[in-house]
């Protein structure tokens, strides 16, 4: 992900609202966006979408035009009443009327037609957020969790203002944990992302590197790396 990494100005995860009444599509999209390290809220009706937008305050919305109660344009109208600048990526059927689609993009929004590739949706969302500057900082490439910060460009890591020197593997492991704060990551997931091979009885290498990281990140401080017995590991700030 590198230079394309997106976070909010305060270093927390980008918030995405996914609205689609086809549950399997919504779940697939949500999974892909969570994989990017974004925080996803998923709903299936227009009414739910409007209340979720008010509750969550998303940075961007993925919105199906055809919904069971009222359509995506009505959802947009209601959301824009309180959030006039919220960027929206519409999902539309291939046979949608063209002038209607043109109307969608007039406000700076974008659309993809079904069936779509997940990569395309992620790319369009990134572009939308960059264009709108929707409280998203994408040039910094600094991950921040509590008093821990990691600069993806300079590869510098600081805990409470003190530099922490890591090996290349330790850095990649910490980067994965920091992209998914407060989320329990299994050993299999960590192996797959950090070591790029499938889970095959190599869990001990994860345990080993977690212990290395702990010595450098947590030594003499309140621990941030926690073991969830039988589930995996989670990085959580003190608060």
Description:
It is built from 8 helices and 13 strands. By secondary structure, it is an alpha/beta fold. It folds into 2 domains: 2-137, Response regulator (Rossmann fold, 3-Layer(aba) Sandwich); 142-235, Orthogonal Bundle (Arc Repressor Mutant, subunit A), CATH 1.10.10.10. A 5-stranded parallel sheet has the order 3-2-4-5-6, with helices on both faces. Strands 8-9-10-11 form a 4-stranded antiparallel sheet, covered by helices on one side. β2 (15-19), α1 and β3 form a beta-alpha-beta unit. α7 packs across α8 (203-217). Residues 134-139 have low confidence and may be disordered.
CATH H-level superfamily title of the largest domain: Response regulator
- Helicity level: 25-40%
Shape: elongated
Question: What integer value in Å does the Rg equal?
Answer: 20 Å
Which CATH-level-2 architecture of the largest domain?
3-Layer(aba) Sandwich
Low-confidence segments: 134-139
Strand order of the largest sheet: 3-2-4-5-6
